[in-house]
User: Fold these one by one.
Assistant:
Number 1:
Amino acid sequence: MVSDSELLLEVTDLKKYFPVQKGVFRKVVGHIKAVDGVSFGIKEGETLGLVGESGCGKTTVGRMIMGAYRPTGGSIWFQPPNGATRVDLAAIEPSKMKPLRRHIQMVFQDPFASLNPRMTVREILAEPLVVNRIARGRDLEDRVRSLIDLVGLKIQHLNRYPHAFSGGQRQRISIARALALYPRLLVADEPTSALDVSVQAQIVNLALEIQEQLGLAYLFISHDLGLIRHISQRIVLMYVGRVVEYAPAQSLFDRPRHPYTEALMSNVPSTRPELVGRKIILKGDPADPMNVPSGCPFHPRCLYAQQLCSQVVPPLLEVDAGHLVACHFSGSLNLTGCDALGCAI
């Protein structure tokens, strides 16, 4: 595990429960446990991949870090610059959050919906600088031009509106806007899922180049294992609001320790024709976050489940250096890694 002193962001036992209300008087009849005890850390300049099926809670984690959702429980410790004292974003008052927002920015999934269609690119990029009183006049124009250049677009693009751009170009504009305040952490929520494959590669390579130039840390949220392997140093795998595996990227793909991880890897396109047909087809649907199964939430779909799995929730334990897994039988299972499956990632 990474020591606390090395972490830019430390998420501990984070929870978010959404109340379910029914009837005329809106009586609370239950809770959707979107995030239920998630913990991880991100070092400065590192990329942490957050992976899982749709509905597993990964986007909710990102939004709690940004302050869009107030956590039900847990802490989000962030290290401001210049040696300032760490602050808990989960407990801080909204009025005190504003000075910290410039250090944590977000890139959204849909690049068209996240851009104001009535503003030119110049206005979109200038707005965060003006609102935070960082630049004006000639300095403002110079900063806007440097941002558009940083993401590989041209100066003449500044006077156009979002509808005049392709999806990939709009996402570059979104990235430029997120970088306007020179943040320390960038939360990227499925930033390439709405783009063509060739454009996805351009955006990912751009993200890597910017990270090298500016020393940014990324929380990269995705369901695409190939993308996550390419960009991440460490990976957190979520299932129904909980972490099931947390490991360095190479360790995770060489030797997965959780059956859910193995199943996801088996469904990545293979480069070896003789291995076609070895896909693990999970039975049933993902668990309902309002009615999570007893014991291990994955046990109704697990090929290796035993009686203990339905009775006791497995703790997240370290099985190798920096490799944590929540599975009662991870030590006795001989799971197949991505290389053996011929994954094209």
Note: The two ends are 26 Å apart (CA to CA).
Number 2:
Amino acid sequence: MAKVAKDLVELLELALDRNASDLHITVGAKPKIRIDGELIDIDEYEKLTPSDAQNLCYGVMTEIQKKKLEASYDVDFSFGISKLSRFRANVYIQRGTVAGAFRAIPYDIPPFEKLGIPPVVQRFALLPKGIVLVTGPTGSGKSTTLAALIDKINMERKVHIITIEDPIEFTYSHHQALIDQREIGSDVETFASALKHIVRQDPDIILVGEMRDLETIQAAITTAETGHLVFATLHTNSAPETINRVIDVFPPNQQSQVRTQLSVSLQGIVTQTLIKRKNERGRALAMEVLIPNAAIRNLIRENKVPQIYSAMQMGQAETGMITMNQSILNLYKKGFISYESAMSASLDKKALQRELDKFKYSKA
């Protein structure tokens, strides 16, 4: 017999036991968990009433967070449960009732090899300056990739790292590096205001949780130009789209200057997505990696972004770049993903289909 959900910690423990990435609380539905990208009911529990949902969400919120929810109708925050995990939460109002989405963030940062991140990406942790953008849809693992890079720097370089996050997700201990983590809403007002005076805090490396607006993007590029290494995220689905998104944020009269700035300061773009595995639980990481060479920098400067994919393929041997289709094809060749999943994940399906069919015929 189904029971009433009264304890959010109990639900989060159950979610982790079942290898779920997210827990969803919404009135009129049973608590749901996301496993390998799909939402599944927790059948042991009854459908949630308005009071059930509010009590569950409010059980892990501070009074300040509750007041912010009531004032602005949604609130981001993070919290930890001892010996279990950290969680990133967004609690919001829908149809006049409280709802929440909770994502698990492990205390231990997984190594590159376990995550399936190509070795070429590790080189970004050694850069002295410039800007590196990690992009992809929500839930594609951007925060985990950045955490792995910051953790590698922390273990190997004697530098000062400042992160600006909304909210703080992974937490770090000081090793070789000194790490300060600032949370939007509690340590600083906005990403842009945090970046305004950040150079006075003597950072070597800066992580910007999300480049949301013109002011933040402008500040991040300028900071990278002044000799700092900046990591940041965007919700884009390819390297060329990322470049266009950054430039298009600016007014037309500034775009030529921004193209020039970006052509000099950009050190890499990582675009990632997660694809359901074929014969086992979990998802495989497909990752596009752009590392600007002279040709790509010139294409950015001259506003010839559509030609970047061709330049990436030509420069693969030189820099280790890889397109998303190449990454997906590699996963298929290794037997990690199905033909259907590969096609579904690609943005250029015709080109991928040609490569997949070539591989199938070569094996026949």
Note: The radius of gyration is 22 Å.
